[in-house]
Amino acid sequence: MKRRKFAKNIALGVMAIQALPSLATNLKSSISRIPIGLCNHSLRSMRLDAQQLIQYAIDQKLDSVLLNTFQPFKSLDKKYLSDLRKLANSNGVSIYTGVGSISKYSTKFSDKYGSAEELLTEGLRVAKAVGSPVVGVRIGMIDDRFTEGGIEVHMEEVIRVMKLLRSQVSDAGVKLAFENHAGDLRIKELLTIINETGTDICGALFDPANAVWAMEDPMKALQNLGANIICTSVRDVQVWETKEGAISQGMAIGDGMLDFKRYSKTMAELCPGVPLHIETISNSAQQIPFQNPDFWKGFSGLSMDNIADFIRFIKRGTPQLIIKPPTGNNKREFDIELQQTELLKSFKYLRAICNIGLKF
After folding, report:
1. Which of 60, 80, 234, 346 fits as disulfide partner to 253, beta carbons 3.0 to 4.6 Å?
2. Are 163 and 197 spatial neighbours (Cβ–Cβ below 8 Å)?
3. What is the pTM of this model?
4. What is the pLDDT of residues 163-197, one digit of tens each?
5. What is the 3-state secondary structure (H, E, C) of 61-82?
């Protein structure tokens, strides 16, 4: 997308949001205001670097930005990181960082920065340099549940790595935010990881749509995690029944099944001050084939009785269509336009309807 067109889209988005202050003012709510931010993955097709993402957050009057891996950083040098911190701080934007998978057995683990211990050590240095209160970590994705030894092998490994670096985490003055990522963990398993690692150094990076992928009701998952949540990435979702089980699709906030008024109120009560980082991943369908016996091989000890809340949840869903670019249109430009639209729509809804954001 051309720079001029990008700037025009941003300006239109800001105008749309600024047209709604009366709605936010008139909203009768007793909840405290929740910071609003974005996750870098929301604008993945634009391939923005860390500085551009921070500038985007500034332009949109956001409170926070989540850089959930090293990928957006053009450098990990001290001066570069210091300059990012100065840019964010001078404009009232907090930076949250992450490193990705820390299970060497995961299908998603990368040894680009060495071992999991070395990766996490570097993550702690980066977090301290940019002023992040957390380092986001995870196992990988749902495929890891089907590897030899199941998800338990990965859980044991990440607990080992985090406990090994306990003193470094404490010295850095941050906490490890463990994510339920791409269906890899159910909330009970995430809580086991947090509690065995130690709540003094570890909390949750919660994604409600990923809880759906793992066959859970996202609101109940939020309530069960409660004060353990220290970071978020959120989007709305539609999930509906199929012959094979269900299909889940990410949506702009306000277009899906989650009640974000209730969600926001619960967040404010259970984990006040934790930002909502919007990670819109729309227009892509995710199969949840729980009617297939092979699918249950990845969920040892779980039965249909254990997913009753999830079954009730999906019965309210509405099937969605995948939007394709018109013939002859550039696929990347189409994705960029869609991702911006979904993100700005989410900001607008959360501010106007849920009274979220510190700058409006």
Report:
1. 346
2. yes
3. 0.91
4. 999 999 999 999 999 999 999 999 999 999 999 99
5. CCCEEEECCCCCCCCCCHHHHH
pLDDT in tens, 1-24: 444 444 444 443 444 334 333 333
Alpha-carbon distance values, 333 to 44, 68, 143, 338, 344 (Å)? 12, 24, 30, 9, 17
Average pLDDT, integer, range 54-59: 98
Q: Is 355 left (phi over 0), alpha (psi -120 to 50) or beta?
A: left
43 CB burial (10 A radius; 0-12, 13-18, 19+): buried
Amino acid at the residue 283: N
State the Cα–Cα distance between residues 96 and 132, nearest whole angstrom: 5
Q: Percent of the chain scored above 90 by pLDDT?
A: 89
32: DSSP letter: P
Rounded-to-integer distance, Cα 349 and Cα 120, Å: 36
Instruction: Find where tokens 């240095």 sit.
Output: 125
Distance CA 353, CA 319 (A): 25
Instruction: Name the residue among 71, 68, 95, 69 with its Cα closest to residue 83.
Output: 95
Contact 64, 275 (CB under 8 A): yes
Query: How far is the C-alpha of 314 from the C-alpha of 215, rounded, in Å?
Result: 10
Alpha helices in 66-186 (DSSP H): 78-89, 116-130, 150-164, 166-172
| pLDDT tops 90 at residue 161 | yes
Nearest alpha-carbon partner for 212 in 244, 229, 234, 192: 234
- Measured between alpha carbons, how far apart are the two ends of the chain, in Å? 29
- 355 close to 28: Cβ distance less than 8 angstroms: no
Q: Collapsing DSSP states into helix, strand and coil, what is residue 216?
A: coil
Which amino acid, one-letter code, is at 38? L
Strand-by-strand arrangement of the 36-39 sheet: 229-232, 202-206, 175-179, 134-138, 94-101, 64-67, 36-39, 276-278
Contact yes or no for 295/245 (Cβ under 8 A): yes
